[in-house]
Amino acid sequence: MTARGVEGPGGSAREAARAGLYVHVPFCAARCAYCDFSSGLFSVAAAERWLAALEREVALRAPAAAGLTFTSVFLGGGTPSTLAPEQVGRLFRALRGGFAVAPDAEITLEANPESVDARRLVAWGEAGVNRLSVGAQSFHADELERLGRIHPAGRPAEAFALARAHGLRRLSLDLMFGFPGHTLERWGATLERALELEPEHLSAYALSPEPGTRLGDTVLSGATPVAPDAEQAEAYGLFLERAALAGLGSYETSNVCRPGAEARHNLVYWLRRPYVGLGPSAHGLVGGARYGNFRDFEAWAAALESAAPPEAERELESAAAAGREVLLLGLRLTTGVSRADYEAELWEVVARRYGAALDEAIATGRLHATADGFAIPRALRYLADDVLAWIEARAQAHGFDSDSAHSVPSSPCPSPPSSATGATPTRT
After folding, report:
1. Given pLDDT bands bounded at 50, 70 and 90, which one contains residue 36?
2. Residue 281 and residue 279: Cα distance in Å, rounded?
3. In the β-sheet with 368-369, what is the strand arrangement from edge to edge?
4. In sequence order, what are the residues at sequence separation of 6 or more whose Cβ sits closer than 8 angstroms to the Cβ of residue 160?
5. Residue 223 has pLDDT above 60, yes or no
6. What is the 3-state secondary structure (H, E, C) of 17-54?
7. How far apart are CA 154 and CA 151, in angstroms?
8. β-strand 249-252 against 201-206: which pairing, if any?
9. Which residues pair with 374 in a beta bridge?
10. pLDDT digits (tens, 9 = 90+) for 224-267
11. SS (HEC) of the chain
12. How many Cβ atoms from other residues are within 10 Å of residue 177's Cβ?
């Protein structure tokens, strides 16, 4: 437990995260300077084509998911809030027509602040949306301009007020740090403004400079340096500290929440539960098989229009790959990996492959033992990638090859945040 935030995820949250349905909406009003996701500018014609292709993909994916009841639905992107209200209604009719969605499912829609308005909120509520994830990134006008964001600094507060007025009680906010020109003083001010909105959930990601993006290219060329690693680590620590004082506890490397407000969809990924991904660049894990859709919108849509699978990759998952992911994903949870979350056969794979490496990690302080598993100590959470790489290297040193290195990526949306450092700034 931190100052006042209870660390998680709790048992009820883990139990509720049984299966997830992800929909990638590949449209934005404007492309951010750091974004490397599969997205393009919104147009009515493109959105209509996407909807028609998505309806075909629902029909394609539904048989494999016939035995699943989805406890979370997540609309990510891109910017799902660019869709017109009638398009959102059509989308949810297709989803509910093809898949079994639990009556109490968590249904999240990602939104940029400028597109949150009364008409859309009514449509989202009618569709069953009960959780809104708002991308703010910063509360400084000049930083927003540098990041390519198009909303004014005060717009997230207005979006939150509108959402509350329309009955939404689960609101999430995402922020970014470590980009060129960012300072600890300004980060502190952004955190203060964010926490004043009293979000149930808050995410913070360091900039990941991606080649081919406007900001990424300037950083990678050396023209605009990012904050030093030590300063980024301090910014991450400040995030956890301020959040805890406001009653939000850490439950995953880059995410904090109020008690019971974990993002259920996040937990589906971190706990390796089954999920279906729809749309360009989406990934799925169903019935022991992984698939990854074409990243390019045209390739994805054209395949479905010709009655062909829209997949760039598909493979049956091996036991070794599954065991590797138990650690790769589960150790990002604040309370770590728990034996109770996995079938006995899978836990045996983990023990056989990583037992000696895990013992060494505990002995050297890289992990600590829990009641029925192990976790990364608080002081090392910012270095989660390094800890995981060390464990994998030790496993290989003990004679286990990483035969899952070329598997279909486990990334669902299109990629879950990996760690506070170097994480893709995706909203949750």
Report:
1. low
2. 6
3. 337-338, 373-375, 368-369
4. 134, 171, 173, 197, 199
5. yes
6. CCCEEEEEECEECCCCCCCCCCCEECCHHHHHHHHHHH
7. 8
8. unpaired
9. 337, 369
10. 887 788 888 899 999 999 999 999 999 999 999 999 999 999 99
11. CCCCCCCCCCHHHHHHCCCEEEEEECEECCCCCCCCCCCEECCHHHHHHHHHHHHHHHHHHHHHHCCCEEEEEEEEECCHHHCCHHHHHHHHHHHHHHCEEEEEEEEEEEECHHHCCHHHHHHHHHHCCCEEEEEEECCCHHHHHHHCCCCCCCHHHHHHHHHHHCCCCCEEEEEEECCCCCCHHHHHHHHHHHHHCCCCEEEEEECCCCCCCHHHHHHHCCCCCCCCHHHHHHHHHHHHHHHHHCCCEEEECCEEECCCCCCHHHHHHHCCCCEEEECCCCEEEECCEEEEECCCHHHHHHHHHCCCCCEEEEEECCHHHHHHHHHHHHCCECCCEEHHHCCHHHHHHHHHHHHHHHHHHHHCCCCEECCCEEECCHHHHHHHHHHHHHHHHHHHHCCCCCCCCCCCCCCCCCCCCCCCCCCCCCCC
12. 28
- β-sheet bridge partners, residue 176: 205
What pLDDT does residue 405 have? 36
Find the mean pLDDT for residues 80-109: 95
Kindly state the percentage of the chain with pLDDT values over 90.
66
Cis geometry, peptide bond prior to residue 237 (ω within 30 degrees of 0): no
pTM above 0.85, yes or no: yes
Q: Which two tokens stand for residue 105?
A: 């499912």
Distance CA 361, CA 150 (A): 45
Amino acid at 113: P
What is the distance in angstroms between the CA of the first residue and the CA of the last residue of the chain? 23
Name every residue whose Cβ is closer than 8 Å to that of residue 8 and which is 6 or more positions away in sequence: 249, 250, 251, 257, 259, 262, 334, 335
Tell whether the model's pLDDT for residue 402 goes beyond 60: no
**pLDDT tens digits along 311-322:** 999 999 899 999
Closest CA to 172 of 116, 95, 226: 116
Closest CA relative to residue 177, chosen from 164, 188, 193, 162: 188
Q: 396 phi and psi, to 5 degrees?
A: -65, -35
CB proximity list for 44: less than 8 A, separation 6 or greater: 84
* 252 and 238 Cβ atoms separated by less than 8 Å: no
Residues 56-68, mean pLDDT to the nearest whole number = 96
